[in-house]
Amino acid sequence: MGKPSPQLYEYKVEKLQELEQKAVEGKIDLFYADESHICTEGYVPYGWQFRREDVFIPSQKIAWLNIFGMTTRDNRYEGFTSRGSITSNMVADFLDRLSFRPKTRNIVVVLDNASVHRCRTIKVMRPVWESRGLFLFYLPPYSPHLNIAETLWRMLKGKWIRPQDYVSTDTLFYAADRALASVGTSLFINHSHYAA
Hints:
With 196 residues, the chain is an alpha/beta fold. Helices cover 36% and strands 19% of the residues. It has a single domain (6-40, 63-182), classed as Ribonuclease H-like superfamily/Ribonuclease H (Nucleotidyltransferase, domain 5). It has a 5-stranded mixed sheet with strand order 3-2-1-4-5, sandwiched between helices. Strand 4 (106-111), helix 3 (120-131) and strand 5 (134-138) form a beta-alpha-beta unit. The longest helix has 19 residues, at 6-24. It is globular, with a radius of gyration of 19 Å.
């Protein structure tokens, strides 16, 4: 993994802290956005076996549920899922629909530098969205630790989806959709630290 230039990193962190403060003061809605996926292969962060023991995993066709999601420090969630790839046009369409929503304050969406976030369509639409009160803020490169959406994905895969949910593709994807729909109502993340 590379590193951003120290000057760019410091500048972006300072600006992100300013956005965090504006969100705390109720002047903006600050969302952190990212993509992730759930797959029938399972999420196993570790495993073990006896010495000289063969472990076999049955082969099967892997199914994926791709997710584009946005979350706030106060556990609001917005997003969509797809069994196909998340394309730049899908992200642009989602942001465009978000820009049309009635709002009492501006919305700022924090994004990483993935190609789907920096495509031509998004560059063209950005001034239009800004005129509607939707602004994009890009994190410095190689800085996933600044994006609280990463914590959301860890909780989803490591805690909220249970081993028994992997019994079938339908139960797994239902469990993922159910968990995401419950963020902020019955499922919560304590985002106690701020950009540093």
